[in-house]
Each structure stands twice: as C-alpha cells, then as structure tokens.
Design goal:
- By secondary structure, this protein is α+β, with helices and mostly antiparallel strands.
- It contains seven helices and 15 strands.
- The protein has two domains: 58 residues, RNA-binding S4 domain (Structural Genomics Hypothetical 15.5 Kd Protein In mrcA-pckA Intergenic Region, Chain A), CATH 3.10.290; 216 residues, Pseudouridine synthase, CATH 3.30.2350.10.
- Strands 5, 6, 7, 8, 9, 12, 13, 14 and 15 form a nine-stranded mixed β-sheet that branches.
C-alpha cells in the first residue's frame, strides 16, 4: 500500500474525497484515486461521496505506472548568456507544466539552462506563449535576472510584437484595443470582455499587408493577459485565422492559429543594454500566407 490512514473521530461525517484532499495533494487527485478503485475503506471500495464515521482504516494503493513521457523536443536558442536565454518556440509546445498537461514542455527542453522564480515547475519563466503560438520567448537563468525581467514585464518595458493573419480588414491602418479581459461568463475556457472578473488589457496593432479577404497585422502587447491577442482581435471582428477557440478556419493547410512572436526587445538584466531579436515566419505560416494571397514582410514598421 502506498498510504494507510486511520480516520480520526473528528472526521465523522466528512466525505472521503475531502478527507483525502490533504494527504493526496488535492481533492481532484483524491477523487481520481477513488474513481480508479485505488482507495478502500475497511477493505471496501466506496464512492467519493462516502461519509466517514471515524475510526476506519483508509488505504490508498499506488497508481500503476504509465507510459514514459516523450523526450523533450529540440528547441532553437537564438540568444544565451549567463543571465538570459531567448528561445524560438515551435508550435505545439507548452511553456511549462499546467493543469492536465502531461506532455513535454519548453522548460523540460531547457532543463538545467533556465532558473529563477518562486514556482519550481516554471523555472526562469517570466512570460508565456500559447501552445500553438510560435516565436520568441525570453527566460531567466538566475534569480536576479528573473526578478529584473519580471519587473520589466510589469512596467511594460518589454516589447513583444507578433504577426497575426486575421479574417477581415480593420477600419484604420493602426489602432489600440483597450478592453479589460477575464474568463467568459458562459464559456469558462475562453477569455473575453464579457466577464465578471475584468483585468486591464491593452493591445496595439498595425496593418502589415492587406489581402483579398484577410489582413496580416503586426500586433504589440502592452499587457499580457491569457489569450489576449486572440480574444481582443475576435472582440473587434478580426478573428485570427486558424484559431479553433476564437477565430475562423484559415487558408488551406493551416493547422493552427496564425500567430507568431516575431520581435522581442528587453533590457539586459545585468548591463541594461537593449537586446532586440527577430524571428521570421516559420514554414507553415509562410505557406498559409502564400495560400491567402501574399507574403509577409519582416522589415515592416514596428509598433
């Protein structure tokens, strides 16, 4: 048995999953162990809603070993010194472990090369990119670098510029979306302006290329809310091509949202000198752009 407990008399009337939340780390883990049949109370398998009487022996068996996790992918590193590392994240890779995520992550791929921050599951992470967004992301390599980069992010000193292909055309060649975002009232997996918990969110955009039914935008984040670009562009009627959550189907062959972190600028945490890096569109987005009727221009005006 992995764990054997005697329910105290004070646990009388308590649900089994609630009782096991502390020893197993969370109520959801307890419920999963019970549902898997790994928990017995006085030798009997019971439901998670079972009420304890106090004095029972509760035994939790080890979970059977699962398949070994896949090895982390190779991730291009475009800048690295003793303090910071900038990676060019491929699509399909999450930045750090999260709820329900078991796949290899960016921090797995960079294990031993990034550090800093209070969360051991997120070493070096000061900002993030969505799983299917590609491009530049900066990570810290020391506690001091993490603190300084985090300060720059909070002070809005870091330039994070993206290329996004959207359906439709904006009314002006440049614009700013200043609309608070939070979890959508009806669809809790989405972020939107229709929320009970609004947080400030500001996004700037400029037209990079006008196509027949779409527009390539250069987008700059001022704040960094979850799904900010995707939710903001959807809110003004310019959904991102290929985005399954907020957007519309993209050009033939596009299998993810057309969103790429193309330019990054920050102050080096030790010297203070500006570090500026650019990433060209990856091959799948170049092909999608060609299918939509145009080619991107990395040298376009910065916001």
């Amino acid at each position: 048995m992995a764990l054997s407990l005697i329910a105290p008399e004070g646990a009388a009337g308590e649900r089994l999953d609630a009782f096991l939340a502390e020893p197993l780390g969370s109520r959801s883990r307890a419920a999963r162990a019970i549902a898997d049949g790994r928990v017995v109370v006085d030798g009997r398998v019971v439901a998670k809603r079972h009420l304890l009487a106090g004095g029972e022996r509760v035994e939790i068996a080890d979970a059977p070993p699962g398949p070994p996790p896949p090895p982390p992918p190779d991730v291009p590193v475009v800048f690295e010194d003793d303090d910071v590392l900038v990676a060019d994240k491929p699509p399909g890779l999450i930045v750090h472990p999260g709820s329900g995520a078991s796949a290899a992550t960016l921090v797995d791929a960079l294990a031993g090369r990034v550090a800093g921050g209070s969360d051991p599951a997120r070493p070096g992470v000061v900002h993030r990119l969505d799983r299917d967004t590609s491009g530049l992301i900066v990570l810290a390599r020391t506690e001091a670098a993490h603190a300084e980069l985090s300060r720059q992010i909070a002070a809005r000193e870091v330039v994070r510029e993206y290329l996004a292909l959207v359906h439709g055309r904006p009314d002006a060649r440049t614009g700013t979306i200043d609309a608070p975002l939070g979890r959508d009232r009806r669809v809790r997996t989405r972020m939107s302006t229709d929320t009970d918990d609004p947080r400030e969110a500001v996004t700037h955009f400029g037209v990079e290329r006008t196509l027949e039914d779409a527009t390539l935008l250069r987008v700059r984040l001022e704040t960094g809310r979850t799904h900010q670009i995707r939710a903001h562009l959807q809110a003004i009627g310019l959904p991102v091509a290929g985005d399954p959550e907020y957007g519309v189907p993209g050009p033939p062959g596009l299998r993810r949202q057309f969103l790429h972190a193309a330019r990054l600028r920050f102050g080096h945490p030790r010297s203070g000198q500006a570090v500026e890096l650019r990433s060209p569109l990856p091959a799948d987005l170049e092909a999608a752009l060609a299918a939509a009727g145009g080619r991107g221009e990395e040298g376009g005006p910065s916001l």
